[in-house]
Amino acid sequence: MEVGWTYTRMSDMDVKDLEKAKQDVRLTQLEIDTKIIKTDLSNISKNLDTIATNHLAHLKQDISKLDTRVWAILFSIIILIGSTLLSVWVQ
């Protein structure tokens, strides 16, 4: 008794069912991808909100501190130059 493979032609109904199943798989994958993209966009939006509300406020405070320090250094330099000129003028 021989064991072999036989080829049977798929009926038109089987082909249509197969195509529909393939299309359903594509749609399901598309739905999954869409949910992933929506989740990613939601996470990006949350991160942008965090940056806008938290990090930018801290950067503003840091810049304000630097501004104050620059003015203090400038004032010190002017006082130093003024005292040097005054000591030279008094002699």
Count of alpha/pi helices: 1
How many beta-strand elements?
0
Distance between the termini: 127 Å
Shape verdict:
rod-shaped
The averaged pLDDT comes out at 83
Summarize the biggest pleated sheet.
none
Enumerate the spans where pLDDT stays under 50 for 5 or more consecutive residues. none
Radius of gyration: 38 Å
State the assembly state of the protein chains: single chain
* Backbone structural class: mainly alpha
β-strand amount: under 5%
* Amount of helix: over 70%
Give an overview of the whole structure.
This protein has 91 residues and is mostly helical. It has 1 helix and no strands. The termini are far apart.
Short structural description:
With 91 residues, the chain is an all-alpha fold.
Which characteristics define this entry?
single chain, 91 residues, mainly alpha, rod-shaped
Give the SSE layout:
Blueprint (H helix, E strand, L loop, with lengths): L11 H79 L1
